[in-house]
Amino acid sequence: MNGTEAETIACERMPEIARELFASGGRMQMVYAWRPAPDAIELGYLASPPESGRFLLWRCRPEGEPPSLAAVWPSLGWYEREIMDLFGLGFRNHPEPNRLVMAEDIPPPFGGKAGAEAKAAREADLPGRLPGLAAGEVQTLPFGPVRADVLESAEFTFFYVGEHILHYQPHLFFKHRGMEQRFAGLAPAAGVVLAERVSGVGSVAHGLAYCQAIEAAAGCEVPERALRLRVLLAELERVYNHLHYFGHLANTTTLKVGEAQGKLLEERAKQINARLTGSRLLRGLLTPGGLSRDLAPGDWLGALLESLRAEVLRYLDLLEHSASHLDRLITTGRLDPRVALDQGATGPVQRASGIDRDLRRDHPYAAYAELPFAVAVRSEGDAYARAAVRAAEIATSIALMQRVLGVLEAGPVRASCQAPPGSAGLGWAESPRGTLFYAVHVGADGRLARVKIKSPSFSNWRVFPFTVHESNMMDYAINEASFGLTIAGCAR
Questions:
Q1: pLDDT of residue 141
Q2: CA distance linking residue 353 with residue 339, whole number of Å
Q3: Which of the listed residues 81, 99, 123 is the one where a domain comes to its end?
Q4: Based on the structure, what is the number of domains in the chain?
Q5: Contact 43, 32 (CB under 8 A)
Q6: Could you list the residue range(s) of the whole structural domain that residue 201 is in?
Q7: Is-contact 73 50, C-beta < 8 A?
Q8: Nearest to 431 by CA among 395, 459, 403, 410
Q9: In the chain, count of helices (H) and strands (E)?
Q10: At the N or C end, where does the chain have fewer CB atoms within 10 A?
Q11: Is the dihedral of CA 300, 304, 307, 309 positive or negative?
Q12: Average pLDDT over the chain, rounded to an integer
């Protein structure tokens, strides 16, 4: 696969390789499956070694059920269960072989049969999602899937005594849309339209990671102006996402004026987007090979960004000096660094727990290599730290955009980019919520055969329950808001 260092191995070697990667300080990113032929299945294990700047991909074709790596890398547990549900491939000795994505009576959409361990677990009446109650005073509260306001559909089950939460179990896949399946059969150039709609608030990040995967498969060179404009678009998306985050977080701490101000600033950021591109969500510009059309960010854009920066700094300073707001954030939902690493936390969530990783710096893409910046990191791991990281990132994003405007030169914004039949590529982006990967396989007919998406919310939803256990009901909404999660980005 272009875009990374790939090696074909026997699946039985993967536990040994995973342990070596763990010992070296590397990180496993995901595992995915695809069918190179109707009667064949291939697994791809993507990892980042401790040295920055490259990714490793181990490919294998299992004979029978491959060994589960969840005991070595717990973050892979959900990916393996997703493969069980979608491809009908079981993983030997998986600690949680029950369904994750699909209901029990739905056959695997990518073919195959239910894995032997999953079938055995169901026949043994092993609990699918919920633990049993050991004490009569423990109460159960199922909440959702329809929730108040305009929140996405999800069901959360709380086991609690008084206000104390003993255990929490999310069920997130009520509206699983099969987005990865929808790519199959599309022309590579058309796939970006679908990628931009996987998660609406991450249109640029998804579209950019997809385009870069196609560009890696095609081996095409994106013009310099387009690379710099891609940075501008990505940071515009980060700013409006983070401003929405602060408005929503203020709502959960009952700071209603703070909520209104945050969402007003989000609206002003989206108005800048619309004036520059014609789209508040920055859609319709990215295409394999560059941009679909040029942009004209004149002096007006720099002036608006500077005005927005001043307003945002004032707003964040007011939040920082609102005692009732801070009191609800500090120590709430603390995420231990070891749990963050083991369970696969990403983006501001991992950086708030002391894990210093950012794809823009560690695996630079677009024009980030020529735009060095400081990565915001905190060590407390609580809701306040997660907010502080995002606050610092807003200032960094605006500074990056001003620097792009200063080095933007005239030139083409699109190059010819045709991924040949049988090619494959990997693309990535640091979205507002964290690491995002697209693995793309082009079939013999030149159309998309498989597109795998690793989204940050899929990773962070797995981590989130570890901050809810042993917490209290009054802090739950604040804790969830501090993670900045989306269901659309998880239930793809």
A1: 86
A2: 9
A3: 123
A4: 2
A5: yes
A6: 187-483
A7: no
A8: 459
A9: 17, 12
A10: N
A11: negative
A12: 92
Can you list the alpha helix ranges (DSSP code H) found in 297-382? Answer: 299-320, 323-329, 337-343, 348-351, 359-362
Backbone angles phi, psi at 353, to 5 degrees: -105, 20
Q: What is the pLDDT of residues 122-150, one digit of tens each?
A: 444 444 456 666 666 888 888 878 877 76
Residues near 92 by beta carbon (within 8 Å), at least 6 away in sequence: 65, 66, 67, 68, 117
Tell me the pairing of strands 40-48 and 27-37.
antiparallel
Count of CB atoms situated within 10 Å of the CB of 271: 14
Q: To which H or E segment does residue 237 belong?
A: helix 224-252
- Could you tell me which residues are beta bridge partners of residue 442? 448
- Contact by Cβ (8 Å): 253, 325: yes
Using one digit for the tens of pLDDT, what is the confidence trace for 319-344? 999 999 999 999 999 999 999 999 99
Rounded to whole angstroms, how far apart are CA atoms 4 and 426?
7
What distance in Å separates the CA atoms of residue 53 and residue 365, rounded to the nearest whole number?
A: 10
Looking at residue 303, which CATH number applies to its domain? 1.10.645.10
From first CA to last CA, the distance across the chain in angstroms is 23
* Shared domain check, 219 and 71: no
Output the CA angle 377-4-435, nearest 5 degrees: 30
Q: Which two tokens stand for residue 202?
A: 């991450």
Contact at 8 Å (CB) between 382 and 334? yes
pLDDT tens-place string over residues 459-490: 999 999 999 999 999 999 999 999 999 988 88
Secondary structure class of 30 (helix, strand, coil): strand
User: CA 457 → CA 25, 178, 431, distances in Å?
Assistant: 23, 16, 10
